[in-house]
Amino acid sequence: MSPTDNFASLMQASTRKSADSGIKRLRRGEVIEGTIVQIGHDSVYVDVGTPTEARVEKSSLLDENGDLRVAVGDKLKGTVIDARPDTPMLAVSFGRNAPVDRESLNVAFETKTPIVGKVTKVNKGGLEVDISGTRAFCPASQIELSRVDDLSVYEGQQFEFQIMEIREQGRNVVVSRRALLEQRREASAADARQKIVAGAELEGTVTGVTKHGAVVDLQGVSGFVHISELANHRVDRVEDVVQKGTKVTVRVLGIEPGEKGERIRLSMKQLSGAEPTPKPTADEVLEGTVARAVGGGLVVRTSKGEGFVPVRELELAPGADHRRAFPVGKTLRVVLVSQDAETGRIQFSVKGVADVEERANFRSFGGTSQGEANAGSFGSLGDLLKGRVDSVAKKKSGK
């Protein structure tokens, strides 16, 4: 056997051994996922099943504030830009702190890997973007998840885009920022959905307000807080408690299947750290404060919840305006008329206070036993008679 044949045999054996041992071989342009095992000064190292960990430029993993957005143990997906077994390298985006050639543009397009570009000009149709010397265009409809009226705020800024089309052999490129945002929202929603279970307490943002309650975004997953679950007191208008954009903490009450997908019921008042408000009882006089006046009466806040006092339950002179008679902040005493078991809504009365106090006084008076009253009366009369008898006896003995 010649030396050449011997060398070829050794190479074949080595190749078979590598294949048999399960060592992964990478291909340039391949999208692969691995686990971060080390974070260095300039690089992040990812275990992708090769003899040597794949390297990722650390600068490509920084957020808008310059902070690293990954940690050891996190999963990371990237595109192979160097497939050599001893020095594999991944890219999570192209064009950040490195030039982009035509081959990189094609790889980014085929693998949908983000590519970094700088907005150089704004026009009616969208944004002109420079990608390391390559002219690109981002249509106005592809900038954000929602409509953007003023595009001028993007000029001079640098963003990640997804290549949607390559024209004129790479000299003209169409990109989209919205496509990336949608992908990341879906990924975030998938992670968030795993945390949404009955009893969980989560942070969210109010994205919509209706007359029945508030829609809350939980990192891409929407839930609903019914108006009766917004606060421990009565709420007539959702806008009095939350507005669009308000950051809130909610508790998951339940997840119900429906024709349009899952319906996630949330509560802001049933948080574990919040103490339940004691309920008012019948024949209990409460001191309250007028929170606001509405057409049919007053909303009054007490230590045992907020309730509504209809005009008919107010002590008003004929023709008097309840708004002037009871301005916001005025204190008054009320008693419970009713409380809805399902919604918790309370109705109070001002007129009923006199009746409740009268009954309370009657019970207090009736609490003194008749025997005690009689004994006290007879005792006083006996003392008087005894005093008179003693006086008469003294006069007789004196004679």
Provide the CATH top-level class of the domain at 285-361.
Mainly Beta
Oligomer state of the chains in this structure: single chain
Number of helices, where a helix is a run of at least 4 consecutive DSSP H or I residues = 6
Give the name of the CATH superfamily of the domain at 285-361: Nucleic acid-binding proteins
State the major sheet.
5 strands, mixed, barrel
- Element-level helix/strand string: HEEEEEHEEEEEHEEEEEEEEHEEHH
Distance between the termini: 167 Å
Q: Write the CATH fold name of the domain at 285-361.
A: OB fold (Dihydrolipoamide Acetyltransferase, E2P)
The total of beta strands comes to 20
- Shape summary: elongated
- In CATH terms, what is the architecture of the domain at 285-361? Beta Barrel
**Helix vs. strand class:** alpha+beta
Average pLDDT: 81
Query: What strand line-up does the widest sheet have?
Result: 1-2-3-5-4
Determine Rg (CA atoms, Å).
39 Å
Helix percent band: 10-25%
β-sheet strand percentage? 25-35%
Segments where pLDDT lies below 50 for 5+ residues? 13-20, 369-381
Note down, in words, how this protein is organized.
By secondary structure, this protein is an alpha+beta fold. Among the domains are: 28-91, OB fold (Dihydrolipoamide Acetyltransferase, E2P); 116-182, OB fold (Dihydrolipoamide Acetyltransferase, E2P); 197-267, Nucleic acid-binding proteins (OB fold (Dihydrolipoamide Acetyltransferase, E2P)), CATH 2.40.50; 285-361, OB fold (Dihydrolipoamide Acetyltransferase, E2P) (Beta Barrel), CATH 2.40.50.140. It has helices spanning 3-20, 102-111, 178-195, 322-325, 352-366, 370-398, and strands at residues 31-39, 43-47, 54-57, 75-82, 89-91, 115-123, 126-131, 134-139, 158-167, 172-176, 201-210, 213-218, 221-226, 247-256, 263-267, 285-294, 297-302, 305-310, 331-339, 346-349. A five-stranded mixed barrel has the order 1-2-3-5-4. A hairpin with a 4-residue loop joins strand 9 (158-167) and strand 10. The termini are far apart. Residues 13-20 and 369-381 have low confidence and may be disordered.
